[in-house]
Amino acid sequence: MESPSERLPPDAALLVVDLQRAIDDPRWARVGPRNNPQAEANVAALLDAWRRAGRLVVHVRHDSTEPDSSYRPGGPGHPFKDEALPLPGETQVGKTVHSAFVGTGLDAWLRARGIGTLVVVGVITNNSVEATARMAGNLGYDTRVVSDATFTFARLDWSGRHRTAEEVHDLSLANLSGEYAAIVDTAAVLAALGSG
Q1: CA distances (Å), origin 46, targets 28, 51, 53, 146, 190
Q2: DSSP 8-class letter at 134
Q3: What angle separates helix 130-138 from helix 165-176, to the nearest 10 degrees?
Q4: For residue range 58-79, what is the model confidence (pLDDT) as tens digits?
Q5: Could you give the angle at the alpha carbon of 94 between the alpha carbons of 40 and 112, nearest 5°?
Q6: What tens digit of pLDDT does each residue of 32-47 get?
Q7: Rounded to 5 degrees, what angle do the CA atoms 169, 170, 173 make?
């Protein structure tokens, strides 16, 4: 964890990944329920703090090309969840694959604005959040993933064993920690932003 007393650099942008109504589709929980029921409230708190501080927010939106996806444009799941609605003037980036950097121009857009630090929240921890954070780390961004402002669902592992959402979440964060990103929590980020 980052030290709560450490200040976030002025170039820290909040990247909200795929927090759309689609994630409430029951198909996501077919193996078992999600973790972090407070994640949306934490994202809302971070968004509020970022906006009050006048810092950059980027909303990543998944525009699935799969016909049966809950994230398909035009479907009821495509809009952002209420807790993560963009305000007028806030940047939205549409993507069709897991990483927010593939096919979107996001990297060039961030660099043109002098952004070197990314604070990543949203869904799903072991899917688009992890893919985005891995690529951000590889591209040289100071990347921080907020553990309690992300969530995932239970899965069967490669051996067919049931893994709870918390197990999947924790292993995904462990994969990222130190190699691609620092793992932080909402309270530490708010304190580092001067809002805690």
Answers
A1: 25, 8, 10, 10, 7
A2: H
A3: 0
A4: 999 999 999 999 999 999 999 9
A5: 100
A6: 999 999 999 999 999 9
A7: 85
Mean pLDDT of 22-41: 98
Return the pLDDT at 1: 37
**Identity of the residue numbered 69:** S
Distance of CA 35 to the CA centre of its chain: 14
Q: Which tokens in the block code for residue 97?
A: 């694959």
Q: Burial level of 11, CB count in 10 A (0-12/13-18/19+)? A: middle
DSSP letter at 81?
Answer: P
Whether the model pTM is above 0.90? yes
Residues 161, 28: contact at Cβ < 8 Å?
A: no
User: What 3-state class would DSSP assign to 108?
Assistant: helix
Q: Are strands 12-17 and 117-123 parallel, antiparallel or unpaired?
A: parallel
* Token pair recorded at residue 122: 């949203």
CA–CA separation, 32 and 35 (whole Å): 10
pLDDT at position 4 is 38
pLDDT of 142 strictly over 60: yes
- Report the residue count for the chain: 196
